[in-house]
Amino acid sequence: MRRYSAFAIAREALRHHTGWGRAWAAPEPKKHYDVVIVGAGGHGLATAYYLGKNHGLTNVAIIEKGWLGGGNTGRNTTIIRSNYLQDASAAIYEKARGLYETMSQDLNYNVMFSPRGVMMLAQTEHEKRGYLRTAHANALQGVATEFITPERVKQIAPIINLDGPRYPVLGALWQPRGGTARHDAVAWGYARACSDMGMDIIQTCEVTAVTREGGKVTGVDTTKGHIGCTKLGIVVAGHSGQLAEMAGFRLPIEAVALQAYVSEPIKPALDCVIMANTVHGYLSQSDKGEMVIGGGADNHNNFTQRGSFSHIEETTRALVETFPMLSRLKMLRQWGGIVDMTGDRSPILSKTPVDGIFINCGWGTGGFKAIPGSGWGFAELMATGHSPLTAEFGLERFREGRFIDESVAAGVAH
Ligand code: FAD
Ligand code: PYC
């Protein structure tokens, strides 16, 4: 792989940019791999990357039915934070947040990590008590958050109206090193690094069946033929239920559309991320100047990857009391992604009833922030059979009633 650098940009500028190579190869599938990952979203690609980097496993294929990063990874609103309540969650999300800090250097790819700070507004007494509790838990977990006063909120985000008649701002849970990153770049950076390690990323190749023999995985049938493997990682977000069915087991997962939209670009007005979870809305401002806005998940199961007028109306109405300037903006475009929801709003990173098959799903509305930590832990689980990062997130927790309830920290209404 040719390294990207200031020197390389200068050199290419002098020769009309004719020397850039492909960022990743487009190979035909081989007959057999040590590991096949289904799904070239952030979690699938990060898993492959850490399988190679941390465990020396490079005979790996990542199979994607569309284009890499074209699922939720390329559709999210890019918020990164680790202010979760339970220890197991804080550990994996903080691991991920830490890896984001150095991801551009690690991958030699600018993922535009911007630790601009994330605040979750407290707009009811109940919410305030909840965030105070989270701030205390985070202090014990080594996650840097604090509960801040309304005055400090206003100082950080002057566009806010603290004194709404229904939901005045009572303070906020503030994570100064939370922020955003460019979502496509995260997928592209991992893809380039995986390809450089000799892994095969096979796009426009849909997995249609999972083959097994004597309770053990043997491979997958795809639209490009049968591909054999010793280990299989299923990392397909909203399609996890279908893949599990192909493999012969069931998952406690529902598929729901989550939508977002952006406004016309305006001059810089907001330099942090704000989530207003009581009213179901959140916003940040992109580098292009658009207000990036989202609300709650659709309240019915579906597989549509698009937005709806009712969602714009509902979310904008919820936000204008606290951000009156939004009422003056034109909205530009909207979209949706299919998210994979568990009952406790925590992910599943687990072995499965089929020998050799591992599942990584259930990130629901909040998995972008987790991509590097999830990839790190899931790769360790697949390579060695155990990872301290994923140990609490096994499928057996649903049978044993050991839920990891993160419905408040998830931040997005379900
Ligand atoms: P995906 O990126 O969806 O990748 C799964 C891939 O599997 C897809 O590319 C799909 O095509 C492929 N696939 C499916 N079936 C098959 C098959 N049969 N064969 C081959 N390939 C298959 N999270 C945050 O942390 N912060 C946010 O601000 C945030 N905002 C969001 C906003 C929206 C509107 C949405 C929709 C999600 C948001 N999320 C956010 C959640 C986050 O985007 C997801 O949790 C995360 O991207 C999931 O990544 P993934 O790799 O698991 O899934
Ligand atoms: O998990 O922070 C999050 C999030 C924000 C918007 C959607 N998910």
From TrEMBL:
Keyword annotations: Cytoplasm, FAD, Flavoprotein, FMN, Nucleotide-binding, Oxidoreductase
Q: Which catalysed reactions does the entry list for this protein? A: sarcosine + (6S)-5,6,7,8-tetrahydrofolate + O2 = (6R)-5,10-methylene-5,6,7,8-tetrahydrofolate + glycine + H2O2; sarcosine + O2 + H2O = formaldehyde + glycine + H2O2
In the record, biological process GO terms are:
tetrahydrofolate metabolic process
Where does the UniProt annotation locate this protein? Cytoplasm
How would you classify this enzyme at the top EC level?
A: oxidoreductase
Q: Where is the Rhodanese domain?
A: 35-79
User: What's its EC?
Assistant: 1.5.3.24
Domain of life assignment = Bacteria
The entry lists its GO molecular-function terms as:
nucleotide binding; sarcosine oxidase activity
- Chief place where the protein resides: cytoplasm
Checking Pfam families in the record gives: DAO
Q: Which cofactor does it need?
A: FAD; FMN
Q: Name one GO cellular component term.
A: cytoplasm
* NCBIfam families assigned to the protein according to its UniProt record, in alphabetical order: soxB (TIGR01373)
Of which family is this protein a member? Belongs to the SoxB family.
Q: What is this protein called?
A: Sarcosine oxidase subunit beta
Phylogenetic classification of the source organism: Bacteria, Pseudomonadati, Pseudomonadota, Alphaproteobacteria, Rhodobacterales
